[in-house]
């Protein structure tokens, strides 16, 4: 039954532990629990690795997008220490952008939250704290148009 989930080293351990000799019979009682623990820790380690990705590697392209718009003086700051996180933009310039570009910028800033925590909320505000929209759980809610979009 365990062999259907096993790969590589686990299959060799199963083959060794289930050998037909008398020693093989006793070794089942020794190797089966060790094998079960090995498989459980392997799965646990893989899950942990997937959840905690390096934001610099995962969000590299998104960071480039943010730096371009920051260079254009559209993005004033991104504060990930606030709860919820806040992307502060120049209000007049933000309103001149198409909704597709606004969505792209908002998801670019949200990437770091998603890569570190898996979830989170990012608000897009102007320097006067006027709320333009939020990204939460991978969905963009534009407060100006009322549209809600998933990841592009």
Describe the structure.
It is a single chain. Strand 4 and strand 5 form a beta hairpin. The protein has a six-stranded mixed β-sheet. The protein has 152 residues and is α+β, with helices and mostly antiparallel strands. Residues 46-50 have low confidence and may be disordered. Helix 4 packs across helix 6 (99-117). The longest helix is centred in the first third of the chain and has 30 residues, at 22-51. It is built from six helices and six strands. It is elongated, with a radius of gyration of 25 Å. The protein folds into two domains: 2-51; 55-150, no CATH class. It starts with 8 loop residues before the first helix and ends with a strand.
Q: Which structural traits does this protein have?
A:
single chain; 152 residues; alpha+beta; 6-stranded mixed sheet; 6 helices; 6 strands; elongated
DSSP strand count:
6
Number of domains: 2
Hey, roughly how much beta strand do the residues contain? 15-25%
Strand order of the largest sheet: 1-2-3-4-5-6
Compute the separation of the termini in Å. 42 Å
Query: Which percent range fits the helix content?
Result: 40-55%
The number of helical segments is 6
Order of helices and strands: HHHHEEHHEEEE
Give the overall average pLDDT.
77
- Based on CA atoms alone, the radius of gyration comes out at 25 Å
Biggest sheet character: 6 strands, mixed
Which residue ranges are poorly predicted, with pLDDT under 50 across at least 5 consecutive positions?
46-50
> Could you say which structural class the secondary elements and strand pairing correspond to?
alpha+beta
Tertiary shape:
elongated
């Amino acid at each position: 039954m365990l062999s259907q989930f096993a790969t590589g080293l686990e299959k060799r351990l199963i083959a060794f532990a289930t050998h037909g000799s008398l020693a093989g019979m006793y070794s089942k009682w020794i190797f089966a629990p060790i094998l079960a623990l090995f498989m459980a820790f392997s799965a646990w380690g893989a899950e942990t690795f997937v959840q905690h990705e390096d934001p610099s590697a995962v969000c590299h392209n998104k960071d480039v997008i943010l730096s371009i718009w920051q260079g254009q003086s559209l993005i004033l700051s991104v504060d990930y220490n606030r709860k919820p996180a806040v992307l502060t933009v120049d209000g007049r310039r933000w309103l001149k952008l198409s909704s597709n570009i606004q969505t792209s910028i908002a998801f670019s800033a949200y990437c770091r939250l998603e890569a570190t925590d898996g979830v989170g909320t990012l608000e897009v505000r102007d320097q006067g704290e006027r709320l333009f929209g939020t990204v939460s759980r991978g969905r963009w809610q534009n407060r100006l148009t009322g549209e809600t979009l998933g990841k592009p």
